[in-house]
Structures are given as structure tokens and as C-alpha cells.
Amino acid sequence: MMTGGAMLCALATAHGAQFKLPQFETTKLPNGLTVMLMERHEVPLISVRAVVRAGAVNDGPQAGLANLTGDAILLGSTKHDKKAIDEAFDFRGATLAGGGATEQTTVQANFARADAPALLPLFAEIVQQPGFDNAELDKLRARKVSGLKQAKESPRQVAGIYYRSMLFGDAPYANPPGGTVASLQALKQADVKSFHGRYFRPDNAAIVVVGDFQPAEMKRQIEALFGQWRAEGPAPQRVDYGKPVTGKPRVWLVDKPDAIETTFLIGGAGIARNDPDYVPLQVLNTVLGGRFTSWLNDELRVNSGLTYGANSAFAPNAQAGVFSISSFTALPKTEAALDLALKTYNRLWDKGIDKATLDSAKAYVKGQFPPRFETGDQLASLLGDMFALNVERAQIDNFMRDVDGLTPEKAKALVDRHFPRKNLQMVLVGKAAEIRKIAAKYGDVTELDISADGFKPGAK
């Protein structure tokens, strides 16, 4: 990989315009830190991102720890408190953010090129030497606890968490990234410091810089700011984070007694983020439920009026992922909506995808793809995901080729290979007293109480 200021190809049409990821350089410092530099001189801005290979999968019994740590890093460093850092960024119109996801924790900043000498050192401080001020940490934790309680009042915010918990069972991929009320309330300053010390280390992290800079000078700055970062003990090893459990048709019925709607997800096992079929599957999913004119949205919203929207998606992780159809409907229409969703889904096998439909989806996907990676921040996010989720640049560079090469025959083979058809898994969030008998049509039913803490059966 080389340095370069190659521009994005912003036009991707059915006539075959190509999208290529701009050139970037990847190096490693002697302490094991990965450094990814992509220079772009169109605007005088710089996006910098620290990516750590640790997230909810590393929480263990302390659900929400990675997420809390990622946000708590923004509370100040050992040298500068939160107020001083906030003022430094705000005064210059810069942004600073952080957080923990399923498999990565990130700290990111965006600022003008002229402000790099002032803000890069502060960025380096909070990544390596966060203060984790106890008073600020208490306030942050309280806000997160309130957010979790409020989320349970909106089924669409939490249905996906129940779904992943259902599919992955006790495996790390089932861990709720935001934690639970009880788990968050139990987390202390010492837990956050321990997580940071265990996983925030140069041989488990990358620094990504995208924007208007000179590579040689930026390398010197990164080496000066991060070259003395040291790790103690062996680096964390990746383990098996789990595979979806789909041995028989199951339904998790999450009871919300005051619900007037039923929110549902249907599906099963998906793919890993680096699966070679990742790109063509985006096209096929576009037909099924990936755009407003998809089969699911047409049938459940436009033609029947059963819902305001329906979609489907593959949600991949580094090792495994899930596929789901999702929507919601008025309580009395629950059975009709579920049956129509399943009938529409089965069109993938019953009728297949004809060439005209496939060509339309291909054109749509090709038009949507490049605009996702136009800004420096978007590109920095992509490079961070590539580092954290083991994605090679070939997947991006060959995007147009893989879309263009999709035929109805290949589409059928991919549908058979990747879209779950048997032993479908279902989460229903709604008024159990009204939909209990309906739920039993679709598999073995397990009932949960939405007011219980957490996202597993037996929670209290």
C-alpha cells in the first residue's frame, strides 16, 4: 500500500464507472502500533481515529464496560480535565467523539489542518492517558442508565438486542453493547481503568489519519506522540465469539403489556464482514428489503398498509453475523403482517430474482456506494473497520466488478447459500396476552418481560 492523494470516483453508473479506494500507507511502529495514513488535499481538514480491537465481546460478565470506557475516555486526560479539552476543541470548531461497539472501541476527532499542532497532542493524551475523573464518570454512567430505561419504552430500539441475544445465546456476540441497568450501575472507576489498561495498548490498536497533510511530517508527529506508548504482558488474543444457534424454529415473545403495536424480527444466521459474498449479497438484499421499492416494503407498506415500513439486512461481525427481516404493525394486524412478511421472503425461492429486477438493484447499489466514502471522516471510519474486522481493500476495490458480475443464476446460488430458509428465528415485542397464540404458529415460544433488566430469559 502506498501513499497518494487519489480522489474518489464520485460517479458510479450502470455503464461501469469504477470506484477505487484512494491509496493509503500502512506501517507499524516499533511498539506494535498500526498507523494508516491517507492524504487527501481537496479540503484543509484532517480526520484522525484511534481504533482498539476490543468491544462488547470483551465485556465478560460486566456488560457495557467497553461502551462506558469508550465514552469515558472523553472525560479528560491525566494532564487536562474535560473542560479544558472540550474548550480546546470547541474553540476551534473541531469535533471529538468516542464509544464502544461490538468488536471495537474508537476515539475520533475532526479538525482543520491548521489546528493539528494544538489538537493532535490532546487527542494522543486522552487515548493513552485518560483521567477517568470519578465525578464525571458517575454522571456519564447515570446518563447511560437513564438511556437504557428509556430504550425499553421503545421496542424498535431494543428488539435487535433481544434478537442477537436469542441467536448467540451465552456467546460473546450476545453481549448487549450498552450493557444493562444492573451491570452499568455495578461498574466502577477501577473497572474502566482495568479495561483500558488491558486493551488500549499499541499492539492492539491503530491510528488512522485521513486528510490534508504531508505524509512524512504526519509520520513524525504520530511517532512522537504515540511512539513511547508501551504495553505490559502478552497482547489480547482473539477467541471464538460465537455462531448463531438456529437448530429449530423459535420465538422470543417479549411482553410489553401497554403496547399497541407488535415489533418483529425474523431470520437467522448471516455472514462475516469479510465474507467473499458480502458485496453481491448487498444487491440481493436490496431487492428483498434494502430500499423503499423493495419487495418487503412494497408488500407490507405500499400494497397492504400493514406497516409504515419494512426492511431486511445482513448485520456482519468479524467472525459471524445475523440476517433479519424487521418491521412493526398494529396489534390486531400482527398475524397478517407476519404471514405476509414470510410469504414475501419466500419469493426468493419460489420465483427468484429476474434479470430486470436484478439490474435495477445493481444500478441502485452502484449509485449508493461511492457517496458513503466521500468525506475524510467516512474514509477514516472505513479504514478503522478494515483494521478491526479484518477486511481487505480488495473487497472495496472490486465492488463494481462484483456487482456487475451478478447474474440471476449466481443470485439463486447465493440465496440458497446465505439466506436462512429453515428453522427461522423470531423476536416479537408486543402485548403477549393478545399475540401469545399467534406466536406459537412460528416455533417454540419463550416469553420475556420487557421491564426485566437485561435481554435474556429469566432476567428480573
UniProtKB/TrEMBL annotation:
Residues 189-363 form the Peptidase M16 C-terminal domain. Pfam families: Peptidase_M16, Peptidase_M16_C. Residues 39-158 form the Peptidase M16 N-terminal domain. InterPro entries: Metalloenz_LuxS/M16 (IPR011249), MPP/UQCRC_Complex (IPR050361), Pept_M16_N (IPR011765), Peptidase_M16_C (IPR007863). SUPFAM superfamilies: LuxS/MPP-like metallohydrolase. This is Insulinase family protein. It comes from Pseudoduganella plicata.
